[in-house]
Design goal:
Rossmann fold, eight-stranded mixed beta sheet, Elongation Factor Tu (Ef-tu), domain 3, alpha/beta
């Protein structure tokens, strides 16, 4: 028998306090009826001395201390799931907003999930192709990995996210099932429409499920959206044996929603006003990526966050970097040069890429090529710094070669079209082509056998290209 409580003792922002509560539990969902007509959902976030603090998802507008009826449901927040969620669009709490009706649920699941037993995890192997050279070659995304994108206000992270959704696959020769779960938190209507239209026009929407929390939606809903998305991803991966890529944008909106709710609860703030449990909340989300023994599926995460003032030491990117296995960093100076995607390869890394590339996965030269491109591009920075002091004309011939390599690397390798889907072999060949700008003796990060095989191939290709150009003239 369910018990209803009449009235509230306190309303504070998105929080309400209910007194005289019995047999309530943490994270339990409650139904709140306002003036006998409008129903809202909330969840219990704190219990003490017969009082329950409730977060109201739809906001506390129109609510007063006397006009509400509150009923405990006896269960936590759950989401309806089936394979039919693919191709559908939902709001931040999992309700359909595409006009196609409700999901015929095969089961419902607690959105809070369950911690994965470390002993049941399998080590991430194999890669996910994004069609973006900088990621596929230098910061390769591995199945089961969590690899965030660190961006800033005004940088094209939304376009990059959309391109990854359009182009991501398990590789050209894979027959395994692949799906994408896309969750957006606090996005504007025009951004949400951009994602929706882009996925539909590209034909990717059939294997994408979208969860959209708009900027004018309740702040509390942003705290639930990534949990709903990850619950759907776990269902598709571990029940339906799919490889699932989860894209979460923007985690900064999630953290700011936490800060707002924490302030309403009167909690003591930590760094930059964020609650002290920001780390554990982020870890609770990020650690839901992985591969589980006994299932052929996997959950791979690409969280996107905007760094306030481009500060990589800000608590959100700082804590994210502790939890995840690398990062992809977008650079404002590259963006100002009209280079897309403006990925700065030097601070970017993927700690697991060595285990999912090479012979049997991509190509045997992949790791050596990536090491050499990193090393050579780092030398470009030194040459540019020297040129800014003494002038480019005074540089040594080898430093001038590095300047040439740096310009070509940025404009031909990093830069690519927003609809350009590069295959992994095309990307690797492009890397070798650029390395032929440098003398062979400068390529000290490549095994001699690999250098003999691929450096000569690119030299021959370049010489044939020069001959053809001369004949055409």
């Amino acid at each position: 028998m369910s018990v209803e409580y009449l009235g509230l003792s306190e309303i504070n922002g998105p929080l309400v306090v209910l007194e005289g509560v019995q047999d309530a539990s943490f994270e339990e969902i409650v139904e709140i009826t306002v003036e006998g007509t409008k129903t809202k959902l909330g969840r219990i976030v704190e219990i003490y001395e017969g009082k329950a603090v409730i977060q109201v998802f739809e906001g506390t507008e129109e609510m007063s201390l006397k006009n509400t009826h509150t009923k405990l449901t006896g269960h936590p927040m759950e989401v309806a799931l089936s394979e039919d969620i693919l191709g559908r669009i939902f709001n931040g709490v999992g309700h359909p907003i595409d006009g196609l009706g409700n999901i015929l649920a095969k089961e419902t699941r607690n959105v809070n999930g369950e911690p994965l037993n470390p002993c049941s995890r399998e080590y991430p192997r194999n890669y996910i192709k994004t069609g973006i050279s900088t990621i596929d070659c230098l910061t390769t995304l591995i199945r089961g990995q969590k690899l965030p994108i660190f961006s800033g206000n005004g940088l094209p992270h939304d376009e990059l996210a959309a391109q990854i959704v359009k182009q991501a696959s398990l590789g050209d020769n894979s027959s395994e099932e692949f799906a994408i779960v896309f969750a957006a938190m606090g996005v504007k209507h025009d951004v949400a429409e951009f994602f929706r239209r882009t996925f539909e026009e590209s034909g990717a929407s059939s294997h994408v499920v979208m969860y959209l929390n708009l900027a004018n939606d309740p702040v509390v809903e942003r705290l639930i959206t990534p949990k709903v998305a990850l619950t759907a991803a776990e269902y598709l991966a571990f029940e339906k044996n799919m490889h699932v890529l989860v894209i979460l944008t923007d985690m900064t909106s999630f953290a700011e929603a936490m800060r707002e709710v924490s302030s309403s609860k009167g909690e003591i703030p930590s760094r930059k006003g964020y609650p002290g449990y920001l780390y554990s909340e982020l870890a609770t989300l990020y650690e839901r990526a992985g591969i589980v023994k006994g299932s052929t599926g996997s959950v791979t995460q690409v969280p996107i966050l905007t760094m306030p003032n481009d500060d990589i030491t800000h608590p959100i990117p700082d804590l994210t970097g502790y939890i995840t296995e690398g990062q992809i960093v977008l650079d404002r100076s590259l963006h100002q040069k009209a280079i897309y995607p403006p990925i700065n390869v030097l601070p970017s890394l993927s700690r697991l890429m060595k285990d999912g590339i090479g012979e049997g996965y991509t190509r045997e030269d992949h790791q050596d090529l990536a090491n050499q491109l990193f090393s050579s591009y780092a030398r470009v920075g030194e040459a540019r710094a020297l040129a800014s002091v003494i002038g480019e004309d005074e540089l040594s011939p080898i430093d001038k070669k590095y300047l040439q390599f740096g310009s070509s690397f940025e404009n031909e390798f990093i830069a690519q079209g927003r609809n350009e889907d590069r295959g992994i072999l095309d990307t690797l060949n492009k890397g070798w082509e650029l390395l032929t700008i440098l003398p062979r003796e400068e390529l000290d990060r490549v095994d001699t056998k690999i250098l003999d095989k691929y450096y000569k191939i690119r030299e021959i290709a370049n010489s044939e290209k020069m001959m053809n150009d001369n004949e055409s003239q």
